[in-house]
Amino acid sequence: MPYTNPIRMAVDLGMILAFTLTALFVLLPGTPSVLADAAFLTSTGIDSPAAAGAHAVTAAGKETVSIGPHVATATIGVEILSPTVKEATSAAQAVMEDVWAALVAQNVDASDIRISHLNIFAENFGPDGLLNENQTRYHASNTLFITIRDLDSIDAVLDAAISAGANNIYSVDFSLPDPAAVESETHAGVVSRQN
């Protein structure tokens, strides 16, 4: 059997393939662009035009709803300083009862008044430093959360609480009673605009 050089065969096959492609480019009009497009689509992984014909449509919308606050939440408190724990807590409790009655008199519903906690601590230091044991005094404080639904009455409600003995106003925050309802209204507005 005659000896065949594999390198020579590979070179010959490469030349034949190159010649065939050249003949196609010359003889067939439009072939180069078709082959080039096919090569590009294959090399880049892009789907063919037929496969790329399916399109997805995404719609986005935005709706803004501006609504003023409907309720206010006031955090107030009373702090009492007395020589004994019993005196401090009793005095704080008495003031809280007076404040409660004053708030109800201002048409604040009892269900909108909530006592948060009672805090008691000793005061062991005075202007001259550490106090003697018999000089120690005790702080008792109560905190109250009030929901005020009539925003025009905020001033009168707080004045009544202070007059009844409350001596701390920590904050007044404004909010909506049902934020979820406003969110649903906003979503409905977006959908109606898209339709």
From TrEMBL:
Q: Which GO terms describe its biological process?
A: DNA damage response
Pfam families in the cross-refs: SIMPL
Q: What is this protein called?
A: DUF541 domain-containing protein
Q: Which organism is it from?
A: Caldilineaceae bacterium SB0664_bin_27
